[in-house]
Amino acid sequence: MTAITRAEVAHLATLARLDLTETELDHYAQQLDVILQSVARVSEIASADIPATSHPLPLENVFRDDIARPCLDRAEVLAAAPAHEDDRFRVPRILDEELS
Amino acid sequence: MTIMGSDLTRQTAAVLAEAIRTGEASAAEVTQAHLDRISSVDERVHAFLHVDTEAALESARSVDTKRSSGEVLGPLAGVPLALKDVLTMRGVPTTCGSRMLENWRPPYDSSVVERLRAADIVILGKTNMDEFAMGSSTEHSAYGPSHNPWDLERIPGGSGGGSAAALAAFEAPLAIGTDTGGSIRQPAAVTGTVGVKPTYGGVPRYGLVALASSLDQAGPCARTVMDTALLHSIIAGYDPRDSTSINAPVPDVVAAAAKADVRGMRIGIVTELNGEGYQAGVAQRFRESLAILEHLGAEIIEVGCPSFEYALGAYYLILPSEASSNLARFDGMRYGLRVGDDGSHSVEQVMSLTREAGFGAEVKRRIMLGTYALSSGYYDAYYGSAQKVRTLIMRDFASAFESVDVLVSPTAPTTAFKIGEKIDDPLAMYLNDIATIPVNLAGNAAMSLPVGLAPEDGLPVGFQIMAPPMADDRLYLVGAALESALYDQWGHLLIEEAPAL
Question: Which residues does chain B have within 8 Å of residue A56's beta carbon, measured at their own beta carbons?
């Protein structure tokens, strides 16, 4: 039985923002299928009455006192950015051509 | 003892710290000796991605100044350390083994780095790792693999193979690793060094570039159990900047390492982590270690953890799911690589081009696996079931710890394999972590320490000790007792048998 098809892998790549090549799609379709068939065994013991655990510790929301404290240095942060302009991150246009 | 005239790189961190405190050696000399060692061997070992020579010498000199002005030095002041390249250090390259962060210099220190600096530990540089900590061999580093000092054609484990190789090659007496599914313990096992994954929440994750947030844990690595304990006590403890940091006193791991006593302890062998699938020499050294522990006064009991059989499957659903979400931050907008920003491509196209160019094969594989496991229609069968298995594994541990104080197993099923052997067989690679993964899923503490060489290949074998959450001290009680008995048997530490490079 096939767990995942090449077309599904292509769709996943789009969702994950990965511009995969045709060769990569062929390769991953086959590998992901093998991995998924192996890990799918978890459903054998995961019966309905077992609660899910998302985290090893009980999580609680953590607040701090509302006191101003220094933040990161702006020049240092922008120096590490791929592009910046006028003290801001510069990003590519956000609309695709067919929408603009 | 005196270390004058001896090779400073062959000493333990505890001995070096004492020599620096008493003035027998200066911190600058100690640091220089390690930098020289790196210069002479790292071309072959490739443990380091970046050596921070000037800053390291500067911080060593400041320790010497503190001493000469009469300040009391901390327990590891002036001792050099190798830092895994997944923890941020202000102004120093932090790549996570990825092209995505090739020239990134973080604008802040991680909590672990802050604590190392406050303890006057000298950070030599950043160590190699599988890209974003995904792997068991460092072969998934974008900057090429590290080599195992026991045999340069073999892997030093992963993802923290650089940190383990730095210890085994005597390039540093201390290192920091991170362990999401075994990335501290498996490299320790295959390099004949010691590594501890503390209790989840025991060491702050602030500034640790996230792989899988519910599993990631930074921890100490060294060549002896006591050095590991000394480092553990410096990096552990509550940090308000990590919402999962445990606000409770750190177990006294240094006292436990000094006590080194297993008399009256109940030590459990896990049925499911013993038997088939383990290399003969690994199984043999494991059995011999059990006999030693029994001789030292521990009671050995076999316990079953039936759900462990499903741990690997659960892990390779939970980890990719969390990773696919965490790695969404690498979008080429605020830091790191950007590709295709030519004025015609849109932001979404630039993101896809950047991630395609910046991520390696294993990272892409796991991002897609996680995206799939979280997609609607598959969520219950995959991610939902994996979370239930996680519950069952925690129940197995809880029930086992009702009848034993610690659990033990071989750390890894085999000794170090050859570079290239498993690189394009993901499932074979994933099997390296079969014995280490259950601990991460449950949030427990665990240690790997060297217990001998496998007779068939002469390579190191690791012994894993697992303790309940916040009982990290038990790892050191057992580990130090076993280490000391083996030392008496051999007359030296196992690492002394590593071939000269």
Answer: 200-201, 214, 394, 441-443, 469
Q: CB-CB: which of B338, B371, B387 is closest to A16?
A: B371
With H, G, I as helix, E, B as strand and everything else as coil, classify residue B303: strand
User: Residue A19 and residue B394: Cβ atoms within 8 Å?
Assistant: no
Give chain A positions within 8 Å (CB) of B426: 31, 34-35
Q: A34, B356: Cβ pair inside 8 Å?
A: no
Residue A100 in this model has a pLDDT that exceeds 50: no
Segments making up each domain of chain A, as ranges = 6-45
Task: Mark yes or no for CB contact A92/B381 under 8 Å.
Answer: no
Query: How far from the centroid of its chain's Cα atoms is residue B253's Cα?
Result: 17
Instruction: State how far the Cα of B432 lies from the Cα of B414, in Å rounded to an integer.
Output: 8
Q: For the packed helices B311-326 and B361-373, what is the interaxial angle rounded to 10 degrees? A: 100
Q: pLDDT tens-digit profile of B110-155?
A: 999 999 999 999 999 999 999 999 999 999 999 999 999 999 999 9
Task: Please report how the helices B225-235 and B472-490 are oriented relative to each other, as an axis angle in degrees rounded to 10.
Answer: 160
Give the chain B residue whose CA is nearest to the CA of A60. B243
B191/B430: higher pLDDT: B191
- Identify the sign of the CA torsion B423, B429, B432, B437: positive
Q: Which CATH number fits the domain A6-45, given the four candidates 3.30.70, 1.10.730, 3.40.720, 1.10.20?
A: 1.10.20
Cβ partners under 8 Å of residue B385, min gap 6? A42, A43, A46, B314, B317
Which sequence spans correspond to the domains of chain B?
8-306+394-495
Go through chain A and tell me how many residues it has.
100
Taking the model in full, what pTM does it have? 0.97
Q: Which residues of B are catalytic?
A: 84, 159, 183
pLDDT in tens, A60-91: 888 889 999 999 999 999 999 999 999 999 99
CATH classification number, B8-306+394-495, choose in 3.20.20.100, 3.90.1300.10, 1.10.760.10, 3.20.20.220: 3.90.1300.10
Cis peptide before B59 (omega within 30 of 0): no
Query: Cα(B17)–Cα(B76) distance, rounded to whole angstroms?
Result: 5
ipTM, two decimals: 0.94
Which of A4, A34, A77 lies nearest to residue B372, judging by beta carbons?
A4
- Supply the Cα-derived Rg of chain A in whole angstroms: 23
Give the integer Cα–Cα distance in Å for B383 and B406: 30
Tell me which DSSP letter residue B199 carries.
P
